[in-house]
């Protein structure tokens, strides 16, 4: 039995979109999954009562508080012990749930991931990536996209391993190609960080390194895992998101650009922490919630965390 | 009389597109401009003979060598003294021409700018920006886009001044808004460089600083001059360029996205060097060449270089 904790109070449309996501998830008939819905019980129960969902499929755990989007992460987590996010991390740390998902305060989710469940031994810095839609219909992974604004070469080398394992087990990409985001194709190009990272990636036998990739390659499939520090990654991701906004504003209906709707993907896991945690987009839709629950299931089924632990125990 | 030197051998379609660009430039009936066409004289003369251009409008200066796109910049400039780029910088340094334009080897153009004509006193690092098309039809400037992959806060502060003067005099933007490319809106956000740069921009009374801008704001008009180090800027620019490729591939015909054809803009000047130098895109079309000649004229007419010299003499 897989037990997944879901913060029902996270996201701009809480808890309605989360409830719809739960229903959509169960419609796809998953086997042996129990959802633990964390949040305002009366509200959740009221929404759920409109549908005929078997009570055996879920439990509700009441949270009297909510960490709002604008709140200071560390302070809020400390002061709001009865918030849905704090309860979620408590349940995860005490093994009452196997994974925790929230589309709430991103900072609080990151602080919770790093301090209540901690990094896997050997992982210097956990990371968070983003899906990048490609024209062939597949998804790539850009990593890091903002958790680590300043990085050392060793961090990027670890992001490459973490991203490769995610691409292999969750995105089903066999022997994923790893590219270093850079400003030139040849070895030796780039800023000091990229120059220092290239040889580490080249010598890393846990990944399939294909060399440097440039900005024009990010939206193509030259590499499946695209590695950079979180400053560049975040700015790139947000620019790509804005392309979707512009496309919509200009009434362009194109199958590929429609896939630039990053909200639909739900969230991405925090990679390198000791339990599955998925952080969703603030404007997560029901589809996003459903996708996040599915990704959590897949992380558990494929034992991604264990695979990461094994990888990093080999290194150290 | 404005004398503009044009490298006819630069770009993938040399010298044909350059010749067509020269013709297009003179069709728009500029006043008092003489073009000095540098390159293989027989070839240039042959192409020009097909058109009835008054010989008083141009001179041809023969160059027996060409620096190819793949050559090592410093080495090539040193060894190929009779190349069109080497001759161009020689003419510029000795005041035989007032501006020099090339769509040839970018590295050689940068090396020539920095070593044969030098930075303006007070400018720590010259920079190169790129036009960013906005939905309202105007252009913004992203600076730096690759000349300076590693920067200090002082460099970014100077790019803001250089970019503002360019935006004001060449893009005709009154009191241009300067934004710091960052991963959060509030002061204090970002990597160490952005955190150190913010207070410098805030206190800089030569610019109109509007705060941080995020990746999603780059393609909008939140800021006219968008400042970042050359690593992030280059990756962003190349991603934006690739959006145009994807749009074309998908047969989308949209007025705004058509303006993502960065080749059409020609080139951008190297900002902060003591004479006007414009570096073009390798695949520059005749329109690009025409635009570059027009920008060079405008730089000379508006005395942009003198304005920059004055700005930096005030600082130091």
Count of DSSP-assigned helices of chain A: 11
State the oligomer. Answer: homodimer
How many domain regions of chain A?
A: 2
Largest sheet of chain A: 11 strands, mixed
Q: List low-pLDDT spans of chain A.
A: none
Mean pLDDT of chain A: 94
What's the CATH topology label of the largest domain in chain A?
A: Isopropylmalate Dehydrogenase
- Largest interface, C-beta closer than 8 angstroms, per-chain residues: A-B, 41 and 41 residues
Q: N- to C-terminal separation of chain A?
A: 33 Å
User: Which range does the strand content of chain A fall in?
Assistant: 15-25%
CATH class of the largest domain in chain A: Alpha Beta
Supply the helix-strand structural class of chain A: alpha/beta
Task: Give a brief outline of the structure.
Two copies of one chain form a homodimer. Chain A is an alpha/beta fold and 316 residues long. The first copy, chain A, is built from eleven helices and eleven strands.
Keywords:
homodimer, 316 residues, alpha/beta, Isopropylmalate Dehydrogenase, eleven-stranded mixed β-sheet, 11 helices, globular
List the helices and strands and how they pair.
Two copies of one chain form a homodimer.
Chain A: E1 2-7, H1 16-27, E2 33-39, H2 41-49, E3 58-62, H3 73-79, H4 84-93, E4 99-102, H5 106-117, E5 127-133, E6 139-143, H6 153-169, E7 177-181, H7 192-203, E8 208-213, E9 225-227, H8 230-249, H9 255-258, E10 267-271, E11 277-280, H10 286-301, H11 304-315
Parallel strand pairs in A: 1-2, 1-4, 2-3, 4-11, 6-9, 7-8, 7-9
Antiparallel strand pairs in A: 5-6, 5-10, 10-11
């Amino acid at each position: 039995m897989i037990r997944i904790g879901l913060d029902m109070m996270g996201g701009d449309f809480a808890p309605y979109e989360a409830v719809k996501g739960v229903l959509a998830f169960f419609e796809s008939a998953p086997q042996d999954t129990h959802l633990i819905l964390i949040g305002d019980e009366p509200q959740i129960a009221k929404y759920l009562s409109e549908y005929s969902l078997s009570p055996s499929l879920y439990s509700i755990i009441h949270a009297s508080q909510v960490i709002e989007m604008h709140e200071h992460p560390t302070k809020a987590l400390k002061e709001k012990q009865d918030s849905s996010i704090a309860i979620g991390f408590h349940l995860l740390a005490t093994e009452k749930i196997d994974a925790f998902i929230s589309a709430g305060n991103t900072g609080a989710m990151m602080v919770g991931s790093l301090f209540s469940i901690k990094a896997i031994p050997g992982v210097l810095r956990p990371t968070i990536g983003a899906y990048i839609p490609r024209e062939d219909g597949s998804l790539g992974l850009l990593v890091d996209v903002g958790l680590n604004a300043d990085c050392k070469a060793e961090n990027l080398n670890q992001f490459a391993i973490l991203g490769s394992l995610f691409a292999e087990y969750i995105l089903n990409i066999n022997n994923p190609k790893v590219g270093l985001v850079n400003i030139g194709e040849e070895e030796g190009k780039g800023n000091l960080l990229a120059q220092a990272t290239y040889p580490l990636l080249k010598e890393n036998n846990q990944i399939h390194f294909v060399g440097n990739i440039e900005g024009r390659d990010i939206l193509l499939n030259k590499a499946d895992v695209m590695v950079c520090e979180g400053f560049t990654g975040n700015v790139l991701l947000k620019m790509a998101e804005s392309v979707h906004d512009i496309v919509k504003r200009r009434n362009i209906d194109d199958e590929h650009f429609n896939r630039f709707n990053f909200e639909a993907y739900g969230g991405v896991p925090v990679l390198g922490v000791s339990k599955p945690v998925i952080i969703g987009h603030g404007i997560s839709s029901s589809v996003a919630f459903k996708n996040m629950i599915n990704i959590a299931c897949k992380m558990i089924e494929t034992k991604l965390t264990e695979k990461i632990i094994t990888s990093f125990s080999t290194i150290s």
